[in-house]
Write a structure and sequence with these properties.
Layout (H helix, E strand, L loop, with lengths): L2 H89 L9 E2 L17 E4 L5 E3 L4 E7 L11 E6 L5 E10 L6 E2 L4 E5 L9 E7 L7 E2 L1 H7 L5
Antiparallel strand pairs: 1-2, 2-9, 3-8, 4-5, 4-7, 5-6, 6-8, 6-9, 9-10
Length: 229
Amino acid sequence: MSKRVTSRKSLTSLVRTRAAVLAVGLGASVVLGAGVATAAEAGVSSTTTTVTAANAVQTQAAAQAKAAAAKKAAATKAAVAKQAAAKKKAASWIDPVAKYTLSASFDQAGGMWAHKHSGQDFAVPQGTNVMAAHGGTVVKAGPNGAGDGPAYGNAIVIKHANGKYSQYAHLSRIDVRVGQVVSTGQHIALSGNTGNSSGPHLHFEIRTTPNYGSAVNPVAFLHSMGVTV
């Protein structure tokens, strides 16, 4: 075989080999490129998922914090309201008995009294719970009207911070002592029929001093304190 023929065959073989190598390389590049693209897409998807999850966690945390703050605010508001109610109750005045019928009124004339009636009578059964109409300090307690005379029977007088005194008379039992501090609505005695009395009732006075002769209209006073008598 001549050198020319051999050289021609070698050249053809070389061209084919290079073409094959080029094709293989091109295929690898295409495959590699596709892999890189797929990997890139996967990375973007993973990043998006991570961001979305983080946002969800933040949103949930914010909602929980808001709910906790609202709950705390509600609890604080309730506590303030409770304190205000307790303070208002402590500062308020009440009727000295819960259920009653009004009988003899203040300044009423009649043969039952040496002078006009000095208080308001609350007709109640014997042994009815008698309460402090307002918080204060017991300054009188005992028989003989606690020093105001036998007509009152067993009696109590309480001094209040506003300078007024409340008196409770005709009691069947006294359950407080002189010097004792009582709160609004606290039990102090049981109603009765002692002293100059025509039947079981509570005689109630509001005074400007602890002693007989300084009474003012108790119903008008209680009305001024917001009590419906």
